[in-house]
Design a protein that fits this description.
By secondary structure, the protein is of the alpha/beta class. The protein is built from 13 helices and 14 strands. The longest helix is centred in the middle third of the chain and has 19 residues, at 145-163. The structure holds flavin mononucleotide.
Amino acid sequence: MALKRDDQLILSILIGGVGNHIGAWRRPNSRVEEKYSLSLFQDLIGWAEAAKLHAVFLADTLRLERDSLSTQPLAHLEPVTLLSALAAVTKHIGLIGSISTTFSEPFNVARQLASLDHISGGRAGWNLVTSAWGEENFGRELPPHEERYERGAEFAEVLLKLLRSWDEDALELDRSTGVYAHPDRVHPIDHVGRHFDVRGPLNIARPPQGHPVIAQAGSSGTGQDVAARFADVVFTTGRTTEEDSRAFYASLKARVAAHGRDPDSVKILPGVSPIIGETETEALAIERELNGFIDLVAGRARLSRQLAGTALDDLELDERVPLERLPDVEAVEGRRSRYGVYRALIEEGWTLRRLIEWEVSSAGHFVPVGAPEQIADLLLERFEGGSADGFILLPSYVPEGFQLLTDAVVPILQDRGAFQREYAGETLRQNLGLAPVPELAR
Ligand SMILES: Cc1cc2nc3c(=O)[nH]c(=O)nc-3n(C[C@H](O)[C@H](O)[C@H](O)COP(=O)(O)O)c2cc1C
């Protein structure tokens, strides 16, 4: 079957540990005991690199939902630390981690990312998130949605200036003359803005990629604008109708062009959280098993958080959520677009039980259930349908659900000519087909 597109899929995969489904840790082989061990992550990234996936992704959040800890394997290692360890045991695969712009400082984050890029030989990636919660751990109020993105945009601007504050030829390293570097090729940035006042330069030489690949995962209008200005890769929820997905794809590409950038230089990767089995029958059985582990009380609390704190305790599971309880999308200060996805399902008439089951099995992403062939067909359909340049895979259970993606779905995509069999370059930017980062015009 000839492909309709001449480019190939871009695939990255979440390595969160035991799986995206709330019940995944209770499966016999889940390796939940290794959630804080390098061994589990070394295996996961090894399978992903052997399958030639473009990147692994580590999500991050800055709050522990303590009440839900009794039944959910919450809490996780800090991304940059873990990715640095994984850089040492891999050669080609990209290393993308989430870092908050609301609760971090650009000089520190520039140091972390430059170090990861040097250590990995140019494979670092940063998922720019503005954090919709966690303020209690920083002694501050959570800034409103718009302000978080305004700070996020300035944060990215400062970070990019810092990372490019050394010219490519700043280092001399001439033992005979004793000249180590050329200070006139290392530049202060003297940034003074509404949120940051940073003199620079960075105290780490220019990283191999110039600056890491920038991902961004906010799909609201404001979020899309920040993505259009700075992102190389955009993660989004895959759980919308084909039309919505295509509309989001077209709207974001148009915003990129409006910022004077080549729309093809930004890769849109919706999230997909497949429940996969060797056969469809097995996949359905695994879905029943995983859903059998659902803690509906914890699930109800999680759903209420996604619904901007809407009260749900008085509702029966087979009841619908009354629309009048829900705020307007634009009034939501937390995860606005994610809330929008849930609100649309409530308008479609989903019951509380169905909403909870879906929330805890994917946190808002697309959950196809099936055999490798079926999952491959679906990914290709969306790729060729013009709503994605690839996907961020969120394995619903580990290790089998992860390995069926890397060892069964990927070979099918490769056989159909839709996915790479070898890495194209050395750095993540090269492997994503992105242009090199030019020197800053001085
Ligand atoms: C695939 C994917 C991964 C995400 N990872 C994180 C993360 O690691 N940390 C985080 O705080 N938010 C994460 N988010 C949430 C986004 O940063 C953002 O809050 C959300 O998409 C709502 O954005 P909006 O308010 O612009 O609509 C992720 C979203 C997606 C789609």
